Amino acid sequence: MLPAAQAVVARAEPLAGRVVVDVGCGTGNAALLAASRGARVIGVDPAVRLLEVARAEAEARRLDVTFVPGDAAALPLEDASVDAVLSVFAVIFAPDVTAAAAELSRVARDGPIVLTAWIPGGPISEVIRLGREALGARPGPPPFPWHEREALEGLLHPYGFGVEIEEHRLAFTGRSPSAYLDAEIESHPLLAAEREILERRGLAGDVRMRMLSVLEAANEDPTGFRVTRRYAVATAKR
């Protein structure tokens, strides 16, 4: 996800001397990039394990970043306490969209809110859908379209923000479609959890074959594996 973090940090420039919060910072890609550009950074994430990884990486790079546990809908920050808000594929998963938008707006001074959101469709989305479908998950209501300017502006306009959207692309690569899929099933939190259930039900092999078929059909690299997924970089400014 590093290229997406780079795109977000670039949209938030200049950062030197400014206070920045990375909401849903995970292992710290965007937070560390912003700190390396001279920002005073706070990384917030509900997963303590990921914060520990981010903190260790910051120490290894000798970057001064504060990592704290917290949720997008209840940020542990004072009102108007940061100059820029960043979120790389994180706030888009907040269960309470309205509360998350209110919190991002509350902590921001006059600086931007910059976030990334997946644009629906494509083989990676299809692989995730196949796993959920095999588990018998019922389709829920459509998620909030963070990637659409009109929808996001409607969400943030009450707080005085206008929104701009840029489309970007992110490449997922591997030695082969099969090697990529096996690595994802092993490490992707959602796919790893699904695998355990599917194995108990005797469905794991069949679902893997269907997932692999999707990736093989979409493969852009005949000597290895590469698929490209579209995403939006949204910049909201007052």
For this entry, give a set of tags.
single chain; 238 residues; alpha/beta; Rossmann fold; 7-stranded mixed sheet; globular
Major sheet characteristics: 7 strands, mixed
Distance between the termini: 28 Å
Secondary structural class: alpha/beta
Series of H and E elements: HEHEHEEHEHHEHHHE
What does this structure look like?
The protein has 238 residues and is of the alpha/beta class. It folds into two domains: 117 residues, Rossmann fold; 53 residues, no CATH class. Helices cover 43% and strands 22% of the residues. The chain contains nine helices and seven strands, in the order αβαβαββαβααβαααβ. Strands 3-2-1-4-5-7-6 form a seven-stranded mixed sheet, sandwiched between helices. Strand 1, helix 2 and strand 2 form a beta-alpha-beta unit. Helix 1 packs across helix 2. The longest helix is centred in the last third of the chain and has 15 residues. It is globular. The mean pLDDT is 93.
Could you provide a short overview of the structure?
The protein has 238 residues and is α/β, with parallel strands linked by helices.
Topology (SSEs and partners):
Blueprint: H1 2-12, E1 19-23, H2 29-36, E2 40-45, H3 48-61, E3 65-69, E4 84-88, H4 97-107, E5 113-118, H5 123-134, H6 149-156, E6 162-174, H7 177-187, H8 189-201, H9 204-218, E7 225-237
Parallel strand pairs: 1-2, 1-4, 2-3, 4-5
Antiparallel strand pairs: 5-7, 6-7
Helix pairs in contact: 1-2, 5-8, 5-9, 7-8
